[in-house]
């Protein structure tokens, strides 16, 4: 497995691959790899001849009061996992490599970025879109794979790639869960043993809400409020619990058919996000 740390090395790799005609897929991550990330790697391997994983805890997507310093960094375990999965290359740039002195350009996808997580984490999605744009420009991969767990992030990246004519094909991959339903996430590591036991409640509320929609309930604002209140009673601090339209993530109306229920809530030190799609029959 090749380890690249400098942006220029990726340019060279792209040049060499173009000569051989091999296809390339990239899986961007912030490291502390778990089985969710590894499922993205497997998907990437099914798409392309070669796979590169990026590991970069991107400062520009963290707010001043957020967990940039505390975010788990486990480089040795990450490299071992990637070797086990026969990943071809890993890109682990430093902050100076991605944001050299003088860097000032930012990529913003305004409407989608202001909703949900963006409303609670101002500037977050500009940080995400900017660093993903930099990765895609550098690596010029044929494919890039992102998790559907970060549903809003995936929607923003798809929008950006379309709007900026970036030639990489974006693929989503399903959310991998623990046996009790909790979506795997690096931030699950912030949970105490007691909180970890209670954490699947977020997914249970998503499923309960989906069931009620499928049973014909159409008062979406009431369903949102009821889930919000339930989580609060159970000791969570919900940021939002929203029944939305899949295509623009705006509040769903009873006539909409392709829905996604998006949720973010804090439990102890952890801020967890999750979602479920609901496709209603016409
Ligand atoms: N449980 C999961 N199933 C599938 N994909 C996932 C899962 N968790 C994360 N991903 C995807 O992995 C990629 C990298 O995410 P990231 O490194 O932020 O991991 P994370 O576990 O989501 O961490 P965080 O605590 O920051 O949410 C993203 O595309 C994300 O959607
Ligand atoms: C896409 C990403 C790697 C950009 O830093 C990050 O937001 C993540 O891990 O989901
Ligand atoms: N997976 C989302 C990255 C973040 O929370 O910053």
Written account of the structure:
The chain has two domains: 2-173, Rossmann fold, CATH 3.40.50.620; 186-277, 2-Layer Sandwich (Pantoate--beta-alanine Ligase, Chain: A,domain 2), CATH 3.30.1300. Helix content is 40%, strand content 20%. By secondary structure, it is α/β, with parallel strands linked by helices. The strands form two sheets. It has a six-stranded parallel β-sheet, with helices on both faces. Bound molecules: adenosine-5'-triphosphate, pantoate and beta-alanine. Pantoate (PAF) is lined by residues 28-30, 58, 61, 128, 131-132, 150, 153.
SSE arrangement:
Blueprint: E1 2-4, H1 7-20, E2 24-29, H2 35-47, E3 50-55, H3 75-84, E4 89-91, H4 95-98, H5 110-114, H6 116-120, H7 124-139, E5 143-147, H8 151-163, E6 169-173, H9 193-198, H10 201-214, H11 220-233, E7 237-245, E8 258-267, E9 270-279
Parallel strand pairs: 1-4, 2-3, 2-5, 3-4, 5-6
Antiparallel strand pairs: 7-8, 8-9
Beta-alanine (BAL) is lined by residues 61, 150.
In short:
This protein has helices spanning 7-20, 35-47, 75-84, 95-98, 110-114, 116-120, 124-139, 151-163, 193-198, 201-214, 220-233; strands at residues 2-4, 24-29, 50-55, 89-91, 143-147, 169-173, 237-245, 258-267, 270-279.
């Amino acid at each position: 497995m090749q380890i690249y740390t400098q942006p220029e090395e990726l340019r060279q790799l792209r040049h060499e691959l173009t000569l051989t005609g091999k296809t390339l897929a990239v899986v961007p991550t912030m490291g502390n790899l778990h089985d969710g990330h590894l499922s993205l790697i497997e998907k990437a391997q099914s798409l392309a001849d070669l796979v590169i994983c990026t590991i970069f805890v991107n400062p520009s997507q963290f707010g001043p009061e957020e967990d940039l310093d505390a975010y788990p960094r486990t480089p040795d375990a990450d490299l071992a996992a990637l070797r086990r999965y026969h990943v071809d290359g890993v890109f682990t740039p430093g902050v100076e490599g991605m944001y050299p002195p003088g860097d000032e350009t930012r990529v913003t996808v305004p409407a989608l970025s202001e909703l949900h997580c963006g409303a609670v984490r101002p500037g977050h999605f500009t940080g995400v879109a900017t660093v993903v744009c930099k990765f895609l420009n550098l690596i010029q991969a044929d494919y890039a794979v992102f998790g559907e767990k970060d549903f809003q992030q995936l929607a923003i990246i798809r929008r950006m790639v379309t709007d900026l004519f970036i030639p990489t094909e974006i693929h989503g991959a399903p959310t991998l869960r623990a046996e009790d339903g909790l979506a795997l996430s690096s931030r699950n590591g912030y949970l105490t043993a007691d909180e970890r036991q209670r954490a699947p409640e977020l997914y249970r509320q998503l499923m309960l809400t989906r069931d009620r929609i499928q049973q014909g309930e159409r008062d979406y604002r009431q369903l949102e409020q009821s889930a919000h209140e339930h989580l609060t009673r159970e000791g969570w601090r919900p940021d939002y619990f929203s029944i939305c339209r899949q295509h623009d993530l705006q509040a769903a109306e009873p006539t909409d058919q392709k829905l996604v229920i998006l949720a973010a809530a804090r439990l102890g030190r952890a801020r967890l996000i999750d979602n479920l799609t609901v496709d209603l029959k016409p």
